[in-house]
Specification:
Helices cover about 35% and strands about 20% of the residues. With about 190 residues, the chain is α/β, with parallel strands linked by helices. It has a single domain, classed as Rossmann fold (3-Layer(aba) Sandwich), CATH 3.40.50.1820. The strands form 2 sheets. A 6-stranded parallel β-sheet has the order 2-1-3-4-7-8, with helices on both faces.
């Protein structure tokens, strides 16, 4: 049975609004696709290890990746490493440059109440995962909104040039009205 792996963003969780929308939509419209959204820590090395183990455990099943924000960065890594299809929602580009503001501070996941403290080694892990260019550009669909208050959507448009792209005016980092695109997303995955 095909699997959708939803990869949430930094300091988010399986209880995020988009993750819940995807799970409910699949239950109603595509019960033939299993849904998985693991709770991920803030530590990149642990996240990558966990996600790679999940993919390797489930291959050769069809695995579809849906990543939001930092989850889009991780989805890109997995899609490139395992030749999988990925839809990226306002993805983080070069997160090793963004995460510095969280170094050596107590940070809290407001969904789970867990606390983290990131160090330079976590930035190094993210930097090592960042790639120039994409080997499997046809496997990606980039979805961004220009009103993203957290990330500069233009960086994603540039990084994923040559990929299918949806650039909507306005919106925000959560990608307003995301759920209206779910039928098209699953058509992209299953074509």
């Amino acid at each position: 049975m095909p699997i959708l792996l939803y990869i949430h963003g930094f300091l988010s969780s399986p209880f995020s609004h988009k993750a819940q929308q995807v799970q409910a939509w699949l239950a109603d419209h595509r019960p033939d696709i299993d849904y998985c959204c693991p709770a991920l820590t803030a530590y990149p090395d642990e996240v990558v290890s966990h996600l790679e183990a999940f993919v390797e455990e489930h291959l050769p099943e069809d695995i579809y990746l849906l990543g939001s924000s930092l989850g889009g960065f991780y989805a890109t890594h997995l899609a490139e490493k395992y030749d999988l299809r990925a839809v990226l929602i306002n993805p983080a580009v070069a997160p090793h440059r963004l995460i510095g503001q969280y170094l050596d501070r107590d940070i809290k996941n407001y969904h789970t109440e867990e606390h983290y403290r990131l160090g330079p080694e976590h930035i190094e892990t993210l930097h090592a995962l960042d790639r120039d260019g994409l080997q499997y550009a046809a496997n990606f669909w980039l979805m961004v909104q220009t009103g993203d208050e957290t990330l500069d959507y233009r960086q994603a448009v540039e990084k994923y040039r040559g990929c299918r792209q949806l650039v909507e005016e306005g919106g925000d980092h959560s990608f307003q009205d995301f759920d209206r695109w779910l039928p098209d997303i699953f058509e992209f995955f299953t074509r």
